[in-house]
């Protein structure tokens, strides 16, 4: 009987020469694609930053435009101070949002621990905003008159303070000087908070909070706000009809 021996040769670890150009081409292509993706992401970030800077510069420009500054250098300096404040506020709020999001997604934290950590982050954010607010106001005071500083603060908060204050005086002509002083003081507090808020809605929220406090105060002082408001509407209509 004949015996046959089957000989099997193991494949060489060295790749076939014909595959080398293909592998090289694919590798280079992947590098190019990856680099292009990174570059595109960086371009988007730059575009977003540029767009935001343009927005805050325009916003600051509108505020400075009503201050009556005739010196062009000073005009630009004040506009830069205001625009920089908007950017600094945005950085604080965005960083805090990112931290809060990470805490909410951290499965290793218990409910109580997460709540405590979120509160701690909120407190830290408020402290940073308070410090930034103080520095900003000092910068404004060193460059502007007290009246101009007030206009800047009102410009950053859509003039809600003067509008609301005048509305209360018009709605309730019998307000005492002490009551007027208290209403104005609370609106000042509301404006200080609103100046540092991250959005239009949040700015109005702060004023809404203090308007509620004012309403409670006036009600405790014996005013029927519903009746006062109805009388005010009648007076405004009569004035408009004249």
Q: Which features does this protein show?
A:
242 residues, mainly alpha, 8 helices, 0% strand, globular
Describe the model.
By secondary structure, the protein is mainly alpha-helical. It folds into two domains: 25-154, no CATH class; 157-241. It has eight helices and no strands. It has helices at residues 20-64, 72-105, 111-143, 146-156, 160-171, 177-195, 200-220, 225-241. Helix 5 (160-171) packs antiparallel against helix 6 (177-195). The longest helix is centred in the first third of the chain and has 45 residues, at 20-64. It is globular, with a radius of gyration of 32 Å.
What is the rounded distance between the termini?
Answer: 130 Å
User: Which class best fits the helix and strand makeup?
Assistant: mainly alpha
Number of domains: 2
Give the overall pLDDT as a whole number.
87
pLDDT below 50 for ≥5 consecutive residues: which ranges? 4-13
Order of helices and strands: HHHHHHHH
How many strands, which pairing sense, and closed or not: the largest β-sheet? none
Estimated share of beta-strand residues: under 5%
């Amino acid at each position: 009987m004949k015996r046959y021996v089957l000989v099997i040769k193991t494949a060489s670890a060295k790749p076939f020469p014909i595959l080398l150009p293909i592998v090289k081409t694919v590798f280079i292509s992947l590098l190019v694609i990856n680099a292009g993706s990174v570059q595109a992401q960086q371009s988007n970030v730059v575009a977003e930053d540029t767009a935001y800077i343009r927005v805050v510069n325009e916003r600051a420009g509108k505020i400075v435009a009503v201050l009556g500054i005739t010196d062009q250098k000073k005009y630009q300096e004040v506009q830069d101070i205001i625009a920089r404040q908007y950017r600094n506020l945005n950085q604080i709020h965005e960083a805090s949002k990112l931290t809060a999001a990470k805490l909410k997604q951290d499965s290793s934290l218990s409910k109580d621990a997460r709540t405590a950590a979120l509160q701690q982050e909120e407190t830290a954010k408020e402290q940073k905003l308070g410090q930034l607010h103080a520095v900003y106001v000092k910068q404004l005071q060193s460059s502007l008159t007290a009246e101009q500083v007030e206009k800047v603060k009102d410009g950053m908060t859509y003039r809600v303070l003067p509008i609301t204050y005048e509305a209360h005086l018009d709605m309730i002509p019998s307000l005492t000087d002490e009551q007027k002083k208290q209403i104005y003081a609370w609106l000042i507090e509301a404006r200080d908070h609103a100046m540092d808020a991250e959005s239009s809605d949040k700015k109005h929220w702060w004023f809404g909070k203090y308007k509620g406090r004012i309403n409670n105060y006036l009600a405790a002082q014996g005013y029927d706000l519903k009746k006062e408001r109805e009388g005010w509407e009648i007076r405004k209509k009569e004035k408009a009809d004249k």
